[in-house]
Amino acid sequence: MDEIRYTLISDGPSDQALIPILNWVLRKTGDVKRIQAEWADLGRLPKPPKGLRERILCAIDLFPCDLLFVHRDAERQEPKTRHEEILSAVQEASLQGFITPAVCVVPVQMTEAWLLFNEGAIRRAAGNPNGKNPLKLPELSDIEQITDPKEFLFQVLREASGLTGRRLKKFNPGQSRIRITELIADFSPLQVLPAFQNLEEKILALRQNGWAAINPFS
Questions:
Q1: In this model, does residue 217 exceed pLDDT 60?
Q2: Max Cα-Cα span within the chain
Q3: What range defines the domain where residue 33 resides?
C-alpha cells in the first residue's frame, strides 16, 4: 500500500510521542510511502467514551482510517494481559460493525521506556543540545526493566536541560517528552525489544494479508 491513514487511540495525550515511531515502523515494515496519522483526542468530547470498546467505536467514527492502533501501557500487568484486553475490546466492537484492522501497541512498562535510547534527541528536546553533563541512560537491554520509566525520563530531561534554581522549577519535562521522537529519524535500536518486535510482526502480518483485518483469535 503506497498510502495509509491511521488513527491512534492511546492512554493519554503524551502518547502522541508514539506517532513518529509508528510512522517509522509502517515505512520500514509495512513498506508504506505516504502516511496520514491522527491521534484520537477523545478526552475533549462533551461525554468522552469510557470503556475501550466504546473508545474504539467512537474513534473510528470521528477519525475514519485504514488502520487503527490501540495503545495501552503494560505498567504492572503482563504485556499478554494488555494484548488480551485490547483484542477482547476489538472483538466486542466487531459485533457492532467495527471492521477496521487493529494493531495492539503495548510498550513495557510505559511509552516513556521507548524514549530513553537516543541521548542527542533527549538533549535537544530539553533545549540544551550541547550539554555535556552525564545523563546515565540505561543500557538498551535494560529499558523495559525500569519500574517507572516516566519519572526516570523526566529526571533525565531535567538533568539534560542544564537548568538550576527557579528556571529548573519552571521547566516542563512533560512538554519536552513529546518532542523526543520528533527529533529521531531512526528507531531501529528499539528492534531488540520484544514489545517492539511484536509491533513489527503485527504490521508485517497485515501487510502480507493485503492490509485486511486478521482474526485476532485465530
A1: no
A2: 57
A3: 3-108+193-208
14 and 103 assigned to the same domain: yes
Tell me: the pLDDT tens digits for 188-211?
999 999 999 999 999 999 999 888
Q: Coil, strand or helix: which one is 193?
A: coil
3-class state of residue 210 by DSSP: coil
CB distance 161 to 171 below 8 Å:
yes
Q: What is each CA distance from 186 to 23, 111, 117, 191, in whole angstroms?
A: 11, 17, 11, 11
Q: Give CA–CA dist 32/214, Å, rounded.
A: 19
Predicted confidence at residue 215, as pLDDT, reads: 56
User: Quick check: 218 pLDDT over 80?
Assistant: no
Task: Specify whether 26 is located in the same domain as 79.
Answer: yes
- The answer on 136 and 75 residing in a single domain is no
User: Is 100 found in the same domain as 13?
Assistant: yes
The pLDDT score that the predictor gives to residue 17 is 95
pTM: 0.93
- Check whether residue 17 and residue 55 sit in a common domain: yes
Q: Residue 79 has which C-alpha cell?
A: 504485556
